[in-house]
């Protein structure tokens, strides 16, 4: 009996305690977090569209550095450029080679090109790609004169070619690309279509769009410039396009060689007009602003001092043409000097980037005409009589209404003359009387008295 009571008591205890133990065990067990999707990969998208110049280089370098600070997954640079300045190109390449974030260059959209400096930039990235219908290459350094390639010393030409090819090989070979074929774009000015570049192992992919390129890169392992490897996980991508700031867009326009030359000439013309015609104000204000903008551009562009001196010489020749009757000789010389100055103003040994011949002629000819005409007006105005005040009466002719004479030794006016429909007191030469009705000419204005002299009557 006692045994059965004890057995029932144990069953009751087990029935009460066991659920509590199970609940405690569940409460003590770690709670697993709900399944979440992995964070998206960040692709920073930059764009090269137009000439490679200092402001574009600043935009790309800042974008690459910002992507590194924000630990982006990938930097995608789309390219469409005819080339540009050597210094700007090297700044961009240096930023790409030292970027902590993998960089992909992509000639896109269809119809774009990566010529000259763009070819160097294209091959400097961790991954190079092109769209169908695009081209690259034609990276031979050239110098132009009057829109045509200029002939330079063979030694200098070889020096520029050898340095360019050595610079290209220095990083193309480390990217495991065809350095020999790449060098022909410099030495022989060869250009390549997208498929030719892919077959020649200059680029890594041909893709139709940035999305297609990212899909092809997903899961691939790439080798960085320092030899390290990175596997790209791009299945879940967030693309962040980075555009130029308003300041960069504005500066990128004024550093264009043609715009810089126009600003320089407009500034000089505005200041010149204000000095020759003081009080107009508007030409002076506009000229000062244009000149300041030209100075800003001058700090960013490789300006040739000889070009500036030729432009200053042209201005001097235009002024001399207005002062001396040279029958246009100095004017023509000034136009030639300004055109040569424009063509010499900006030059780089890598490309023919500079002021175009059309812009040089289109600015120099109107500038010459305006300066010469303004200077001749100024010089002519110095011989004009004053049109207001008593001075306007000098050398004017009138008619005697009362006989004019003077008391001997006193010079007291004793006559009247009519000039411009007005009656004036008049004094004639000492000891001489001018009769009524005679014509006289004003020699001097003394207060309200005119000193006159008789005018010989014209023959009938």
Give the SSE layout:
Elements: H1 2-28, E1 41-49, H2 54-69, E2 74-80, H3 86-97, E3 103-107, E4 113-115, H4 117-123, E5 127-130, E6 135-137, E7 144-145, E8 148-149, H5 154-172, H6 179-187, E9 191-193, H7 194-199, E10 205-206, H8 210-217, E11 221-223, E12 229-231, E13 237-241, H9 246-254, H10 257-276, H11 282-300, H12 305-323, H13 329-345, H14 357-381, E14 397-402, E15 415-419, E16 422-427, E17 439-446, E18 449-454
Parallel strand pairs: 1-2, 1-13, 2-3, 3-5, 4-6, 5-10, 16-18
Antiparallel strand pairs: 6-9, 7-8, 11-12, 14-15, 14-17, 15-16, 17-18
Helix pairs in contact: 2-3, 2-9, 3-4, 5-6, 10-11, 10-14, 12-13, 12-14, 13-14
Commentary on this structure:
This protein has three domains: 41-245, 2-enoyl-CoA Hydratase, Chain A, domain 1; 255-381, no CATH class; 391-454, OB fold (Dihydrolipoamide Acetyltransferase, E2P). Helix 13 packs across helix 14 (357-381). The chain is 46% helix and 18% strand. It is an alpha/beta fold and 460 residues long. The protein is elongated, with a radius of gyration of 42 Å.
Report a brief summary of the structure.
The chain is α/β, with parallel strands linked by helices and 460 residues long. The chain contains 14 helices and 18 strands.
């Amino acid at each position: 009996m006692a045994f059965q009571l004890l057995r029932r008591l144990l069953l009751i205890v087990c029935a009460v305690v066991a659920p509590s133990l199970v609940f405690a065990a569940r409460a003590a067990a770690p709670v697993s977090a709900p399944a979440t999707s992995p964070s998206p990969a960040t692709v920073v998208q930059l764009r090269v569209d137009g000439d490679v110049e200092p402001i574009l280089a600043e935009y790309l370098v800042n974008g690459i550095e910002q992507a590194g600070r924000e630990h982006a997954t990938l930097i995608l640079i789309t390219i469409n450029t005819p080339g540009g300045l050597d210094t700007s190109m090297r700044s961009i390449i240096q930023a790409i080679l030292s970027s902590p974030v993998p960089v992909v260059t992509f000639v896109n959209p269809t119809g774009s090109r990566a010529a000259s400096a763009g070819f160097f930039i294209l091959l400097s990235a961790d991954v190079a790609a092109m769209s169908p219908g695009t081209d690259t290459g034609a990276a031979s350094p050239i110098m132009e004169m009057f829109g045509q390639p200029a002939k330079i010393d063979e030694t200098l030409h070889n020096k520029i070619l050898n340095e360019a090819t050595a610079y290209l090989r220095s990083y193309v070979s480390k990217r495991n690309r065809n350095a020999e074929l790449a060098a022909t774009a410099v030495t022989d000015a060869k250009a390549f279509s997208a498929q030719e570049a892919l077959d020649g192992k200059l680029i890594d992919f041909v893709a139709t769009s940035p999305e297609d390129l990212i899909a092809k890169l997903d899961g691939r392992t790439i080798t960085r410039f320092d030899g390290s490897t990175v596997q790209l996980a791009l299945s879940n991508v967030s693309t962040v396009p980075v555009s130029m700031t308003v300041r960069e867009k504005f500066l990128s326009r004024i550093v264009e060689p043609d715009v810089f030359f126009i600003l320089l000439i407009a500034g000089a013309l505005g200041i010149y007009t204000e000095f020759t015609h003081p009080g107009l104000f508007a030409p002076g204000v506009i000229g000062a602003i244009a000149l300041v903008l030209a100075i800003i551009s001058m700090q960013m562009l490789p300006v040739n001092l000889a070009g500036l001196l030729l432009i200053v010489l042209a201005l001097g020749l235009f002024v001399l043409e207005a002062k001396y009757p040279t029958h246009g000789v100095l004017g023509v010389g000034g136009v030639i000097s300004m055109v040569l100055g424009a063509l010499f103003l900006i030059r780089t040994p890598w490309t023919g980037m500079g002021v175009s011949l059309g812009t040089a002629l289109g600015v120099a000819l109107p500038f010459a005409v305006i300066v010469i005409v303004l200077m001749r007006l100024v010089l002519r105005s110095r011989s004009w009589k004053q049109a207001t005040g008593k001075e306007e009466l000098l050398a004017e002719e009138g008619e005697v209404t009362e006989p004019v004479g003077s008391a001997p030794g006193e010079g007291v006016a004793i006559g009247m003359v009519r000039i411009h429909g007005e009656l004036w007191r008049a004094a004639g030469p000492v000891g001489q009387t001018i009769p009524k009705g005679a014509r006289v000419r004003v020699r001097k204005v003394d207060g309200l008295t005119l000193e006159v002299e008789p005018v010989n009557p014209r023959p009938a």
